[in-house]
């Protein structure tokens, strides 16, 4: 066991840069998983499991409570920011905020031999930024659900090192418009499906978002076209055009009522007799704020900041669905996630590290 | 040499069905080229050349004039109409009108041993329905330009067996809109390039076409979006969206002024500081009606129908640019080209065949 004195905070900015330097765009997390696995296997007190490109390290100290610290390994595609770049106490680069800073904090906590008051499960997982079917958490659950057991879960998503409570749900919807093919020199013989996108995109762009307040957390919904496609050949009036929508909805709605609201918005523009259709591709429920568990209250006190609504969907919903209260808590500005400018600061990293270290070393005082 | 009596018209509907049954979507014309080459090589009086998937058969009777009969082997992609289907005296199927009916007429003329008053060059070429760089005529010209020499050219494009004069020019233009990438849960941090397509598509859809009359032929311009694309990942506000435009312009304009008119229409919607750009991808000039050559006047008389404007771009422009007067003349309704309903009738096929046969057998009477 470690000393009673809290160990010095390691250089988390450099550690994050090292992780950013290992590319891990979704579906290509193998190299980073190897790196994490190798780190965890050096820690004697952790039992380490690997499932696909997911790595799980668990302490077995026999404590009364277990905290799950979970973070995804994957990033969205690069945006001219593949290379990590440190300037002073700030690190820029793909995944720096979402969420290699969080991973660096988790790895540092795992490596630090301090006097833990709770058992900890460190979950590093793949496939969070892509369709749900690729989720590493689902892979782990399918292989050995016990690996994910715990009393509470903390997702290391970027929150600026404050608690972001609950999460918004997400719908993926595909709107497909029909037309009639024709030669482009005689377009009046056909119906151009790509032209028919205009009013649909206009209405999506003009969408007015609800902003409900739930348990003192203000959510903010969104509806975005994230993909568009159509066209056959340069000489052909296209008879099919498709737009993919991404809808974020506050946790006061379930997925069904969120879908109904999108349908109410767009169905007046669709003509089923023209072959138009709207299909739900994927839906993930949101999660309401859940801050009543003593361990999460303890973390909230450690951060000394009021909780804020999580606007993105995160795997707090995964744990909430399985009866495990969960919050988002990690370094990095969530507003910069998935932008070319994402970055993380040493201050955020150190703050997240010390709050979680305090939770792990003293959390048992408040545990049930 | 053949008899003085005009030979019976062969079964051109069956012959066209045979050609439709050989798929020849652009870039895959090899099988059909083999078939055509094999047919032509059976005709002793023709010298046959093959360049890539282009086949050229030339008579060398020492006549004073040479007519080039040219037709493209390729079709647009199938549209549920790959299989030829004959009902009574009509043939449906991919390419039946555009332009395997015309090819069947050319093959029948090539195979018929009648008393020709002119020399004839039969040109079967690939890559007409796709980007100009794939044009079989350019391939032939690159390999042996003499193969395309002649006094006039008749393109067997579908015209309902009447002369369609000149052709409209075509521009391919790409409009690309910029944006700022962001997480879809916080779209206000970015700018959605796909949403920005809405006003561009709306303006293209509302385009009001000019319909100038040139030499008694009424042209009709068109502007169509033929392709649209954009999107990175389901969670990312896209920072780039692209629409491909196809513009048909009457031959009273050159390509530069046609491009200027499209720019004038759309540039007010573009913001170069946002990364928007408009690029000319390809341009083909149109061709004015050219019906003064005695051989073409002779064909016009044989058809007993007034000439009409050709709205599509065709390779009459290729020959016109090289100083060879050319017209479009072939079986099949041009309004049905590139649609699922394209078809050709026995009446059109026979009419085109007899008009061209009369031209070839008697055209020298009016030749210079």
What does this structure look like?
Two copies of one chain form a homodimer. In chain A, a hairpin with a 2-residue loop joins strand 11 and strand 12 (217-218). Chain A has helices at 12-20, 30-41, 96-111, 136-143, 197-205, 255-266, 294-303, 316-321, 346-362, and strands at residues 46-51, 54-59, 66-72, 85-87, 90-92, 119-125, 152-155, 164-165, 169-178, 182-183, 213-214, 217-218, 222-231, 236-237, 240-249, 277-284, 308-309, 326-328, 343-345. The first copy, chain A, contains nine helices and 19 strands. Chain A is α+β, with helices and mostly antiparallel strands. In chain A, helix 1 (12-20) packs across helix 3, helix 3 crosses helix 9 (346-362) and helix 7 (294-303) runs antiparallel to helix 9 (346-362). Chains A and B meet through strand 10, helix 5, strand 13, strand 14 and strand 15 of A and strand 10, helix 5, strand 13, strand 14 and strand 15 of B.
């Amino acid at each position: 066991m470690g000393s009673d004195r809290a160990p010095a905070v390691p250089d988390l900015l450099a550690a994050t840069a090292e992780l950013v330097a290992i590319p891990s765009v979704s579906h290509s997390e193998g190299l980073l998983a190897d790196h994490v696995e190798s780190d965890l296997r050096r820690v004697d007190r952790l039992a380490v499991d690997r499932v696909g490109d997911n790595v799980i390290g668990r302490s077995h100290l026999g404590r009364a409570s277990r905290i799950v610290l979970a973070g995804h390994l994957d990033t969205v595609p690069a945006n001219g920011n593949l290379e990590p770049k440190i300037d002073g106490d700030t690190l820029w680069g793909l995944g720096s905020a979402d969420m290699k800073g969080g991973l660096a904090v988790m790895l540092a906590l795992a490596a630090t031999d301090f006097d833990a008051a709770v058992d900890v499960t460190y979950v590093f997982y793949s496939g969070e930024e892509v369709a749900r079917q690729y989720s590493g958490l689902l892979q782990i659950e399918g292989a050995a659900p016990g690996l994910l057991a715990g009393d509470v879960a903390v997702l290391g998503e970027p929150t600026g090192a404050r608690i972001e409570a609950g999460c918004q749900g997400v719908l993926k919807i595909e709107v497909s418009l029909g037309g009639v093919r024709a030669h482009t020199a005689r377009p009046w013989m056909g119906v151009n499906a790509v032209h028919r996108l205009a009013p649909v995109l206009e209405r999506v762009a003009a969408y007015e978002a609800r902003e409900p307040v739930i348990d003192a957390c203000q959510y903010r919904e969104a509806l975005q076209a994230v993909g568009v496609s159509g066209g056959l050949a340069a000489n052909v009036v296209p008879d099919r055009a498709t737009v993919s929508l991404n809808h974020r909805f506050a946790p006061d709605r379930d997925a069904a009522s969120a879908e109904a609201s999108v349908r109410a918005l767009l169905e007046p523009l669709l003509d089923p007799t023209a072959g138009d259709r709207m299909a739900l591709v994927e839906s993930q429920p949101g999660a309401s704020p859940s801050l009543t568990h003593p361990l999460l209250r303890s973390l909230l006190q450690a951060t000394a900041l009021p909780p804020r609504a999580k606007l993105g969907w995160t795997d707090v919903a995964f744990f909430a669905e399985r009866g495990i209260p969960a919050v988002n808590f990690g370094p990095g500005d969530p507003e910069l996630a998935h932008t070319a400018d994402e970055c993380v600061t040493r201050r955020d990293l150190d703050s997240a590290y010390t709050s979680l270290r305090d939770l792990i070393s003293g959390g048992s005082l408040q545990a049930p």
